Amino acid sequence: MEAENRLTPLVAVALAKLKPGALRRLLLKAGDSDSDWLVRLALVLSQEPLLPVQVRLPMHWQALLRHGRVSAQEATSLLDCIVRKGEELTAQANYADAWLLLHTPWLEPLPFSLRQPLQALLLRSLACTSQLAPQASTELQQQIYEFFSNLLHVRYDLTADVLQAVLNLLLDLSVPLGFADRLLGLLRMLRGRNRTPTGQPLDHSEEQRLVLAEYRLLKAVGQTEPADRLMKENLWIPAFGQDLVRQHLAAGNTDEAAAVLQQAMAGNNSEEWEPLMLELALHRGDKQTIRRLALKLFLHTHDFRYYRQLRQTYAASHWPQQVKRIVGQLRQQKDFFSRGIDVTVRIWMMEEHCPDKLVELLRKNCSLPLLNRYEPWLRTLRPEALLELYAKALRRYAENHSGKEAYEEIINTLRTMLRLPNSTEAVRSLIIELKVLYRQRRALVRLLNEVVV
Question: Which pTM does this prediction carry?
């Protein structure tokens, strides 16, 4: 250890005299060995301030992963430092040194336990690389392309989001560099690697990403016919099937649209295609299908476009009964009090213009948070009812809550009530009632005495 400590500064000074590129190649060549002493030396040298940061940090990263005992916290901290420095150098237009840092995460295979914890940082590294690539020299662009092209040839440990980001980067570089044919060959190789012996995709989501990348590349280089053929061969991919169906609908060819939709849905989850099925039903005027799908989609998404499409299929005299049915189904949803109640209020106030229905809803679910949420609507349309609801909710709140924050809420609510028309007498009576009921709560009584009625 003593000899190593004496040796390290001397080695560091010698290495510091090398240019970063040559130094990096030297260290990477040494790092190809699995010798423990080289790993230890790399760990020691990675702390040496005389070495350029774009050499020290990548060397530290590689040595840490090769050491084999790295925690997620340790890896995250170091990689965050590397990516941040790469982002700083990119902002300074120092693209060559930035690239030395930004491609560091890919120099060593990641242990499975680190892939998810580090994903956000990996995506940041790729985003910064995508930012610098268009500004970099042609030589550096070629280096970036070659690096990630080779990465896809040999690495199987990329998560779906990271794979998509790498594909996007290669697509952006391939056409300007004249590498479209090379990338096309790479994509088809990757698709072949993702096949069972019978030719079926092993991973359908990866197949979808690769096919979409191939389609985008063919379009970018003007190969329209192969791109269209690829689309028709892969209608199971929603982006393709939906686009082709909409093309037929726009041209008024509903039968062709229906045939494509049926082909695209074969072996797929039909729920993913329901918005498109609804579009087809609207073009055909298929009232029963519109009602079924529009109701289902509205209850699932709370998108009022589907609500209005549903309403258009009913006569005005029959619609109120359907509204009652829809509201009843919303109430049965598990997220009614977090989302469904807001949807119900919007139905009554903005779609059907029935403020009395909102009052009725709040009588059944009377609480201060809900009243405060919908107070702006009721203040104008039903102030008397709002005053009554506030009094009811405040009694319930005072019965079940105590303490400084609760008392401040009570006082704020009383002041809100006083801003309503013709509220003075009702508020005065309520204050007297609260003072009598809770005379043992001295802090509350003191605050009630301060309310000016």
Answer: 0.62
Residue closest to 60 by CA, chosen among 87, 48, 155: 48
Q: How far apart are CA 10 and CA 14, in angstroms?
A: 6
pLDDT bracket for residue 330 (50, 70, 90): very high
The more confident residue out of 27 and 401 is: 401
Residue 195 has phi, psi (to 5 degrees) of -125, 145
Helix (H) / strand (E) containing 36: helix 36-45
Element (H, E) at 19: none
Among 294, 296, 320, smallest CA distance to 309 is for 294
For residue 365, the Cα-to-chain-centroid distance in whole angstroms is: 33
Tens digit of each residue's pLDDT (9 = 90 or more) over 278-296: 999 999 999 999 999 999 9
Is the CB of residue 117 less than 8 Å from the CB of residue 76?
yes
The reported pLDDT for the residue numbered 179 is: 94
How far apart CA 374 and CA 389 sit, in angstroms, is: 12
pLDDT (mean) for 353-382? 89
Q: What are phi and psi of 344, to 5 degrees?
A: -65, -45
Going by C-alpha positions, the residue among 195, 234, 238 that lies closest to residue 215 is: 234
Give me 76's structure tokens: 């995250």
| Cβ–Cβ < 8 Å for 422, 396 | no
Residue (of 47, 36, 35, 60) closest to 11 by Cα position: 47
pLDDT above 70 covers a percentage of the chain that reads 87
DSSP secondary structure code for residue 420 in this structure: S
Domain ranges of the chain: 1-108+119-136, 363-453
pLDDT of 325 over the 70 cut: yes
- Could you give the CA distance from residue 158 to residue 71 in angstroms, rounded to a whole number? 19
Least Cα distance to 80 among 131, 118, 130, 127 occurs for 118
- Mean pLDDT, residues 376-393: 91
* Matching residue, tokens 């028709």: 232
Cβ pair 93, 135 in contact under 8 A: yes
- How far is residue 352 from each of residues 157, 223, 364, measured CA to CA in Å? 54, 52, 20
| CA gap 28, 38 in Å, rounded | 11
CA separation for the pair 261, 256 (Å, rounded): 8
DSSP string, 225-278: HHHHHHHHHTTTSHHHHHHHHHHHHHTT-HHHHHHHHHHHHTTS-GGGGHHHHH
Question: HSE of 174 in the Cβ direction (CA atoms, 13 Å)?
Answer: 25
